[in-house]
């Protein structure tokens, strides 16, 4: 499967869950996808919950999501920060309505809640934010990976292999279509 | 590619490089491979250089490498610890002579040096241990991934996508053969 023509955004802020950011980024690069880490501005050195570093490639306002095929949100505490940026929320909404592949894992659901795109959607997340997800109108399932149209979600780092399998399957349909 | 029938050992000790342990483990699980983390004994809670946790499944003496198809050694400071265990060194030697797929990244080469299996082998590693690798008889190359028969090596975390591409290619030949 050659995904060389595809581009994916990975949102980033401090205290991301280290593996939930990096496994998807490295996995997509292994598949040939161009991945950009998007934070407040370019070249910010962020640190994960455990301290694994990651540097942003561009700022929220420096890219056009229409040029990308997917948008991933890592878990950890980064989603609590990311949801405070109107440009980040706008990007998630644009990605949703433009039918980009949207991936969210663990606490990432907070960002989708603030983007108000979860009403009637089947999703999962860390059980810790199940109430927030349901209050936003989502149908919450305790499964390793849940796919509802263009929204793909998982619960925790140990779900990453199944999460990325689903993300890659969805992205490969972008190549065919 | 269905690698469900394969089993791989990943050696572990404290201060492993977090992504160099976890990217291969999760990537192999995504491909259907059964991965076991092998440390001093079962159920030890190790921590990576940055603090990402990982728990051993079995101890060095509790498995038979003949039942596995590959053996991976992570980087970080774990290799400096691992090379002190005669059982671990014996396991690496057995894996080498039984033509298992052997993966080593970054500082992992120290373990292969102590296993005395590098004479005349083309390898890479973090540039920091280039001298140690050459003194052990290896031919050192500055490339993202180097494959010499059953030994596959890479330099650093950013090489992980190419490293795992090569590891999976070598493992897939185990299914065919």
SSE topology:
The structure is a homodimer of 177-residue chains.
Chain A: E1 7-11, H1 18-30, E2 34-39, E3 45-47, E4 53-55, E5 58-59, E6 70-73, H2 78-82, H3 86-97, E7 101-105, H4 109-114, E8 122-123, H5 130-135, E9 139-140, E10 145-148, E11 151-154, H6 160-176
Parallel strand pairs in A: 1-2, 1-6, 2-5, 6-7, 7-11, 8-9
Antiparallel strand pairs in A: 3-4, 10-11
Helix content of chain A: 25-40%
Terminal CA distance of chain A reads 14 Å
Largest sheet of chain A: 7 strands, mixed
Annotated CATH topology of chain A: Rossmann fold
- Regarding quaternary structure, what we see is homodimer
Structural class of chain A: alpha/beta
Strand order of the largest sheet of chain A: 5-2-1-6-7-11-10
Order of helices and strands of chain A: EHEEEEEHHEHEHEEEH
Number of strands of chain A: 11
CATH class assignment of chain A:
Alpha Beta
Helical stretch tally of chain A: 6
Question: How many individual domains of chain A?
Answer: 1
Radius of gyration of chain A, whole Å: 14 Å
Describe this structure in words.
The structure is a homodimer of 177-residue chains. With 177 residues, chain A is α/β, with parallel strands linked by helices. Chain A is 33% helix and 23% strand. Chain A is built from six helices and eleven strands. Chain A has helices spanning 18-30, 78-82, 86-97, 109-114, 130-135, 160-176, and strands at residues 7-11, 34-39, 45-47, 53-55, 58-59, 70-73, 101-105, 122-123, 139-140, 145-148, 151-154. In chain A, strands 5-2-1-6-7-11-10 form a seven-stranded mixed β-sheet, sandwiched between helices. Chain A is globular. The model of chain A has no long low-confidence stretch (mean pLDDT 97). The A-B interface holds A 18-19, 22-23, 26-27, 29-30, 48, 50-52, 157, 160-162, 164-165 and B 18-19, 22-23, 26-27, 29-30, 48, 50-52, 160-162, 164-165.
């Amino acid at each position: 499967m050659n995904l060389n023509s595809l581009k994916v955004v990975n949102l980033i802020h401090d205290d991301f869950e280290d593996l939930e950011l990096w496994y998807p980024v490295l996995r997509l690069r292994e598949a040939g996808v161009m991945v950009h880490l998007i934070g407040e501005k370019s070249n910010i050195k962020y640190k994960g919950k455990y301290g694994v570093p990651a540097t942003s490639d561009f700022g929220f306002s420096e890219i056009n999501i229409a040029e990308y095929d997917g948008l991933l949100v890592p878990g950890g505490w980064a989603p609590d920060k990311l949801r405070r940026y109107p440009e980040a929320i706008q990007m998630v909404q644009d990605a949703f309505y433009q039918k980009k592949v949207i991936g969210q894992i663990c606490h990432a659901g907070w960002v989708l809640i603030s983007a108000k795109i979860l009403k009637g959607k089947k999703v999962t997340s860390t059980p810790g934010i199940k109430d927030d997800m349901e209050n936003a109108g989502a149908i919450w399932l305790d499964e390793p990976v849940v796919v509802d149209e263009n929204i793909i979600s998982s619960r925790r780092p140990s779900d990453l292999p199944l999460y990325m399998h689903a993300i890659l399957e969805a992205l490969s349909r972008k190549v065919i279509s």
